[in-house]
Amino acid sequence: MHKFLLFLLLLLPFSGLTAQNGISGRIINAENGEPLPYVTINYGEDRHVMTNIDGSFEINYKEDQIQLKISYLGFYSKNLEISGAIEYVVVKMEPSVTNLDAVIISSEENLANSIIKKAIAAKEENDPEQALEAFQHKTYTKFIIDNQSDAVTLDTDTTNVEIGTIINTARAYLSEKISRTAFQKRKGRNEKILGLKTAGFEEPVYEMLALEANPYSLYKEDYKLFETDYAGPLADNALSNYNFQILDTTSTERPAYVIYFRPKRERTVAGLEGILYLDTASYAIQRAKAQLLGAIKLEVNHYYKYYEEAAIWFPERQATSILPGSGTKDISVFGGVISVGTLQRSDNIINRILGSGKVNPDAILSSSSTNYDVVFEAPKDLEQNTASIEVPPGAGEQPENFWDANRQEPFTYRDENAARYVDSIIKADNIERRIEVKQALTNGYYPLGFWNFNISGIYSSNGHEGWRMGLGGKTNSRLSEYFNLHGYAAYGLRDEKFKYNIGTKIYLHKSTGTNLNLDYTDDLREFGTFRYRKKVDLFSLFTPRFGNIASYFNHRTLSTGLEHRFNPYTSSELRLSNSRISMNESFDYAYLHNGELYSEYDVTEVTFSVLWRPFSRFLHTPEENVLLERGFPRFTAQISQAVEGIAGGDFSFTRVGLIVEHEIRNLDQSRTEFIFEANYAFGDLPLTHVFHTSPNNVNEPKILNRFSVAGRTAFETMYFNEFFSDKQAMFHIRHQLRPFYITKSLKPELLLFSRFAIGIFEDVDKHPYAEFKTLKHGYSEAGVELNNILFGFGLSAAYRFGAYHLPEFSENFSLKFTFQLPL
């Protein structure tokens, strides 16, 4: 028995060698040596392949020899006889004038452009989301991160000798998904997850659901793939971004033009290279392939199916793969840049799964989605204001017969082994812990046991406290699934005083984000602040202008609040607070009210704050609402009412605020931001509760003495405490040009900005000890930033002009550095 097994083991490699021949090669233009992409190579009776975008191809065959019939529009066809002794061939093709459907083509590109123009004009009839009022279908998706080196191991059992072969034990990630997609023109597209399996993870990795591994449509203006936007080959401006060339026509029942497209402005606009099969009658997409070839090889295939009842080509299957490449060109993917072995951006989903910034040079990523049970009518249970992706309870616990009934491709022996192996790898490498840490860091925390430490509050500085040292954070689910405890303690080295906060958040209903908050705070606050309770800011290790603030008041605040999310796009908080406010040596102030000066007083406030993000994409699970993609515009509004006589409140006043933010991102990586804020207040308003415009200029005469860190929406040339208002409006415009690609690591970004503020202040005489100006004539400044010069540092320069221009040039000018730390 042993000898027989050994004989089989020795025989297997030789039988594999004799079973199949292989030929690879490249097809080039004989005149200039340029590679010819998507050349059709027919071999055997009915087999064919097409060259890649670099002209390369591979063919495996069992015969002793084969005939290759090579055809390419605009070139003379070639026939080659290949024997098993030939392993590599370079084929040179001679250009010619080609006849297509009895039309003599002297310029293939002009005819191709004409076809593309017609395809763009026909998008309303061919794009399912434009042509159809409604549709629904199920989708089966399989997603794999693999290793292209198959591992074969021999395992010997001392009691019973057996040879076991484990195929591909190096897979690093494997997931399956069954979903239902529903679309209505008035309500948009919604995906409901019916089943979800993620090998090795106790809890599903929900963020993977948002990964655009299989883009739904090629008709869109932007083609989104792995968090990166590419110019759409049928976008309205496609002829500005791509060169097109007609390659062939198919001879199927519904013939199609085969159109080759390649980027026209590769250094300016991210583009793909590929082929479109466009129906000769309707100019609809029948099939498409898109590729990127460089440090990696990325390939996406789209397959459409024609439905007679709807007279439309509908997406049937998408398949995406990423393999190691042989080129030197960096590829933009995963929202960043991939060069050989390195993923440049750290805050993407794939990197959180792999747990490292390094990509295995043998790694393979493959994803496929198959649509089935397509129905061209509106689902009855599609509600308005639902998240883009819904994960109902139980989706991750479906039985095996559910998967057997819905899988649209086999779950192979390799997949089963992969699932078992991934499970062991994830546990051995503590992958779930790595994901937990990286997700916490993105929000400014580091988890340790049941406590998430706040890394942004460890140290800071300002003009009153000097260096402020602190420690704080909040508990996580390891302590409780029903509440958290949070707080901090800080100490100012200059004012030599402790500050602290302690509180709890009780999760009343996680699915709707309904939480009860209780807090007590003893700390400092800047004059003229209006803190929007629901405003969302990207995490930063420090807020630049805070280091320049020198004037604070003390407050001891007890508050309770109720948070609630009305739908995935709208969240709110109702808050009741009582604050005991007192002055300190940083600012001598007293408020004149009814003939009495107040330097200490109580304020009781009821505040309602709301955040509305109607154009963002969200993932809604039974536990949380996850922002998938920031959409604009977004709106933040807040109203606060101070009540006199309740809980010792000394004053009655009303404050209202609104922020509108909009951002335009372009395919060339330039972007423009618009920020509008309006504040309105009336009643008995002490200076602590009016408004400032986020000034960020230290009160020093020399420019270099004012050198500090520039903020994103701060007025860099406005001095602290120079202006206050009880009614004001601000407008910011920031335009960043596309990065300058000097080297791989040196990509500075030039940004131009302009800011304007106008406001008034009634009853100035109620603040006798405070000297400040109003903004009734309008304040203007403009400037420039050169960011990411080195290690995230850059420079900012701004100049103040208009009604509040000061006599000396140095008084109007600010020079500061910028700092951007991506997380």
Q: How much helix, percentage-wise, in residues? A: 10-25%
Identify low-pLDDT runs.
Answer: 1-18, 99-109, 149-171, 332-360
As a whole number of angstroms, the C-alpha radius of gyration is 32 Å
CATH superfamily of the largest domain: membrane protein fhac: a member of the omp85/tpsb transporter family
Strand content: over 45%
Q: Report the total helices.
A: 10
- How many domains, in number, for the residues? 3
Supply the CATH architecture of the largest domain.
Beta Barrel
Structural class computed from helices and strand pairing: mainly beta
Mean pLDDT: 83
Outline the biggest β-sheet.
18 strands, antiparallel
Based on Cα principal axes, name the global outline. elongated
Task: Report how far the terminal alpha carbons are from each other.
Answer: 60 Å
Q: Looking at CATH, which topology of the largest domain would you report?
A: Porin
CATH class of the largest domain equals Mainly Beta
Protein name: DUF5686 family protein
Organism: Autumnicola edwardsiae
Signal peptide: 1-19
Keywords: Signal
